[in-house]
Amino acid sequence: MADWAERIPGIKALLESRFDRVDVAYKTVNNQPIETAILIPKSLAPDSTSVPVLVDIHGGALVMGANPEPGFIARWAIDLVEQEQAIWVCPSYRLLPESTSGEILDDIDDFWKWVHHPASVSSGLQAAVNTVRPGLTLNLYRVALRGESAGGFLSLQTAFLYPHSKVKVVIAHFPIMYTDLEHDPLPARSKDVPPGSDADKLIDKYLEEVAKKPGQIRTVSPWPEMGEFLFATFGTGRLKSLTGDDERMTLRYAMSRAKSLPPLWVAQGIQDPIVAKEATDEVVAKIREAYPDTPLKYTVEDGEHGLGADLAITDSWVAEGVAFVKKYW
């Protein structure tokens, strides 16, 4: 994570120099807006028509993250948006433990409904773009979806649960958080962290504070905010209990809901200490068996969590994956 923290200033500078940004609420919960960032390349002609869309859902184990999260954004993804002359849409969503995993999935569902609101109404993605670039016309039948880690999981869940998203291709990197796998992707308690440890006390204290403020929600916690809490859940094996027992967090339920899937590009680092390669292998194998007609590119490379973050769009396996995405986007 230290390397990710060090890259934040450079990624922020890239985004500010190459994109115009507007933040818009796509829903409101308990009088608090839940926003999406819309980033429009400065190189995009003001009268462009049929502009494609890349939706990017941030990671952070459903506990932390921002929209977008500069520490985690892959450089090649920035290049892809500009190369395709697309707009980049980065939704926030409610976060654990103030909210439940089911409420997070509800937010993603509502986000997609907002994206596809007709331009004739005052809400929706096209209407939001009209406020800053009235000459741009979006092509909402050319929507690609990308996410890493928890964002990759929510991207897979979009493919399974929300066909109204109309997504043409999904990029899901180190994405597995399903709670019903043979190879459990959520970290178990470390042997070095006994029950009652300082990490447990930190979690318990935070949960006590949350309980005192029912209805409070949190939607944005940029790195390193909540980092200490998140790593405490890894060490104690308590992240799984925070995700809860909502059946929508299981692969079994997801696969029962989808008759078909859009093309998928899944990537996984062999040495990833957070999302085990075996869990991703298991999910990929089950998808291939259940959906044999779905184009699925599975990239496995040496690397840890954040695989390929600093690669360019022309580098090695990224170039192959991007070619796959462009074929269907």
From TrEMBL:
SUPFAM superfamilies: alpha/beta-Hydrolases. InterPro entries: AB_hydrolase_3 (IPR013094), AB_hydrolase_fold (IPR029058), Carboxylest/Gibb_receptor (IPR050466). GO terms for molecular function: hydrolase activity. Gene3D superfamilies: alpha/beta hydrolase (3.40.50.1820). It comes from Rhypophila decipiens. Keywords: Hydrolase. Residues 54-207 form the Alpha/beta hydrolase fold-3 domain. PANTHER family: ALPHA_BETA HYDROLASE FOLD-3 DOMAIN-CONTAINING PROTEIN, ARYLACETAMIDE DEACETYLASE. This is Alpha/Beta hydrolase protein. The keyword Hydrolase applies.
